[in-house]
Amino acid sequence: MRFFEALKNLRSRVNNKYFLTGSETFLKRQFIQEAKTVYPELPCHTYLPEDEKNFISMLSSEDIFEQSSLIIVRDFNKMSSGELPDLLEKTGNVLIISSSEKADLKSKNISRCMGFVLPVECLPFPDYGKEYQLWLIKLISTAGYTMEEGVDEIIFSKIGPDFFSLDNETRKIFLYKTLDRHITKKDVELVVSNSVYGSPYDILDNILKKDITDAVGSFQLYMVDNSDCTGLVLFLIHYMEKMCRVAMLVEQKIPSDDIASILKISKYMLKTRYLARVNTLGLTQLAKIYDSLCTLDVQVRQFSGDKKRVVENYLFSVKGGL
Amino acid sequence: MTWEASNKLLKAFEEYQDHYFFLVSSNAEKIIPTIRSRCLHFKFNSLRPEDIVNILWIKKGFELPKAKSLGWVGSEGVDVFSNPSLYIELRESVLTLFSTVVKKDICQALDLVDRYSSEPKALLDLFLILITDMLMIKDGCENSVVNKDQVGEIKKACEKVDYRFLILLGNLFGSAKENQHLNIDLGSRLKNNIMKAGQAL
Q: Does B124 contact chain A (CB < 8 Å)?
């Protein structure tokens, strides 16, 4: 089930057992936060993989079946306990189980749970960029700060689609600007570090440059902190689609300011991320890469083994001319 | 349902014999035999066009011509009941989409797909029906077209393209339909296919 539908279910208390999957930690955190506000009357117990002993002793205590509570099991895929299905079967408690990676729903342990829980996919936002920037703007204004126009774009372009790092880096700026509470582009350049791990932007930039060694390098760096190849490919597809549309409008000799407003891309992003690539490669080449990414998307979804191998294989094929 | 969950259900069947269970499935073969053998099996066939028209016209209050147009589309397996008004609008839009592709106005065609970004499946289904209708018309089988009320417009639209281009469109969009079960982003796939079609012209 999609995230927002599941959120509706949670609010109307239709279901009381959820299985959250997906590497995007932010949405899972939001869901758990929401559950705490929906069930304020229930005592809340959170279990992490390091609390596995406590989790098992909780399962063996009789109290847990008598008194209703909100039980959150985080990063379940990192736990070795196979007793969760029994808990799901016997208890009427509100249970939210999250997996830190794309869970293998066919695995014995998890498939036994599936009959009792509502599986929720916490996928990255598809409309790349917009939601992240809106979220940044809200974060900045809620914290009582003002900003120069375009600050959100620069932060986002430096960090990429990672809520966790966006949150961290923005809070760094808050600390730096405690006195005047107005954030300028210069502050961002000074305080925000470029994404430590390979960002999807780096991967695609290297694909476009046909610099395969670097593309594979940035992909491997990206995978250190992420495991969702499907989400990554989806991001690359959306980015390439926008790139192709920019190329079409450039071919029609539309001024860049108009392109930015037609495609709802910020002028900063258009100039720094899109136009340089479009002018070097041209529409035909970009469309070819867009098409190959769509094919990769299907291959990644079809492949039941380690999806990283499929992406790496694709990256090597780029050098051979796709 | 997974095999494990099915077995739990079977256990529930046996434990709660005073309860009534109604199992609904589009494919009875996917239900485990031990459950199937304990159930009374009712088979519901898909609705005929006239049934769909009657439901939309009499029960849902749609105008008869509109209900008729959806009746034909609905009999092709498109779920028109989920949002009939949208399907009425989309039937017109897929024709516009086809014309913009043929005019090579790819930017506008992509904008049109974006406008229906929440319903890419409906757009894909209707576009494929339109392509099949065009092939039917080119083959001289006008009586077999699904969009019967749009024959004139469809004929006019497909005059500008040859049979080979329509086959190419059918293959491109058909493969998107085939991969639908993989949960691919249909909107992106539609846009990619439109760009490829534009280049092929």
A: no
Comparing alpha-carbon positions, the chain B residue that sits nearest to A238 is B188
pLDDT tens-place string over residues B62-112: 888 888 888 888 888 788 888 888 898 999 999 999 999 999 999 999 999
Alpha carbons B141 and A318: distance in angstroms, whole number = 45
Of A89, A114, A244, the CB nearest to B195: A244
For this complex, say whether ipTM is above 0.90. Answer: no
Is A302 in Cβ contact with B182 (below 8 Å)?
Answer: yes
pLDDT digits (tens, 9 = 90+) for A12-47: 887 888 888 876 556 787 788 888 888 888 888 888
Cβ contacts (< 8 Å) between B195 and chain A: which residues?
A: 244, 287, 290-291
A289 to chain B: closest CA residue: B192
Q: How far apart are CA A192 and CA A185, in angstroms?
A: 10
